[in-house]
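Re: your question from the hallway

Yes, I did run it. Sequences:
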Amino acid sequence: MANPLYDSLFGKHAGKSTPFLHLPDGSNITHEDFLAMAAQIAHVMTRIGLKPGDRVAAQVQKSPQALALYAACVQAGLVFLPLNTAYTVDELSYFIENSGASLIVCDAGSEPALAPIAEDLEARIKTLNGDGSGSLADQAMRMPTTFTTIDRSADDLAAFLYTSGTTGRSKGAMLTQGNLLSNAQTLVKEWRFTSDDVLLHALPIFHTHGLFVASNVTLAAGGCMIFLPKFDIEEVIARLPLATAMMGVPTFYTRLLDDDRFTRDLSAHMRLFVSGSAPLLAETHVQFEERTGHRILERYGMTETNMNTSNPYDGERRPGTVGFPLPGVEVKITNPESGKTLPDGEVGQIEVRGPNVFKGYWQMPEKTAAELRADGFFITGDLGKIDEDGYIHIVGRNKDLIISGGYNIYPKEIELVLDDQPGVLESAVIGVPHPDFGETVLGVVVPEKGGKPDLEEIQDAVKTSLARFKHPRKLILLDELPRNTMGKVQKNILRDKYQTMFTHP
Ligand code: MLC
Ligand code: AMP
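Structure:
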């Protein structure tokens, strides 16, 4: 027995004294240091009684220790559940309760608010701050620097990532060791990652993109990362000359293009720019090439599946497309009603099958059955087509979803909060184009008869319930919502009406 994910990503670097993480203060963390950090954290977690399969919910700032917490979970056979640092206590309590986490790791500032939740669930709570301090780190420091890796199989769970749903209730996507490892190994090959690569890492590490795509790929290839706490244009421009590759959401690339310091010279030595998590406008792709000579490589993935398709490394990277299915991944376009496969060129729902596809939603067999077919195909909720050259185009979504700066936002979750406010009869939340975030949230509120909802008070209520990135950038009062003859709200009419609100205000 062994632990495939740990062995292939982390264990194989044992004894290497070369840098793994380059930090903004100029210091480095070697592979050896990193593995020691992870081993010490693994000791803390097992000594407090955590057993293989237990969930570890972590809402922590990006830091080497936060990444080591992930490695420690893999090594100790625990299920890692990273949580967006923007989530409010209301949001967190759902994830923690739903997952039945045995350990909560959070910033010291959040401990007082989360302690009662931990107590109710009989979960332990430890702190880990952005500077690496906290009760977890204090205890870890006193632990041995090696840990006997717990045996796991490819089918064992490695992580839970929560994704929102169209009903407003988030679902825990269960990802196995095999899901994560197969995808990382495929991407290393497809994108030609080697131990010479230096990845500029400015993504958050609580999502698939920053954690599994960026970090796992670098680890599998044995490369290193310039590990920035967040996307800060000054830092990115300063560090770019030291990198060979970068991965980002489209906002990263539009922000770079908006900066005159981002020139052909600054990126001349770069080997690869990858974009994903949201649509990259063909226009951005073209501008990027004009400015730098590089063609951004766009790929398509999701929480439940990791990466599914990619434009080619060699060969034409076609703007406005997400390329071809990755080796081992099958993609088909089906009719949403009948589920029958459609001929190439026709638009339908995108379904995917492969070793990358998750095991299902935690304790939600009905939702799993509705989206993951018995034959292994996962219904992504995205709409697309395959063109005559085999390139896949994403043309829309069959799910009511807004993607803002790479973060997914489900309108239902916001509508439920808006509908609850005094004087509000109903609401509709839509995504409209935004120059920086790609799309942003607009809330349309209908007053009750004689009601006079106070929009500022509503925004305050939203603040306490929902993470900042989900807040409507604007609320609009309307007498009624457009509906079709079946009574269904016609969000397309609202989207058309407010289409240019943020692009040509
Ligand atoms: C931050 N804010 C956002 C936001 N990010 N609002 C909407 N959408 C976002 N994405 C808030 C801030 O809290 C702030 O609030 C205000 O908006 C402006 O902040 P900013 O300073 O401009 O934002 P910044 O901190 O620079 O963050 C923007 C960003 C970041 C794009 C760099 O959101 C980011 O790193 N996004 C990447 C998301 C990601 O990794 N997605 C991958 C999901 S995995 P205030 O109060 O100051 O106004 C996935 C699968 C796959 O999708 O295929 O990869
Ligand atoms: P998430 O649930 O956060 O993993 O987001 C997954 C969703 O992001 C997918 O279902 C798509 O809608 C979207 N997405 C990811 N990559 C791309 C891309 N390259 N182009 C368009 N949409 C994308």
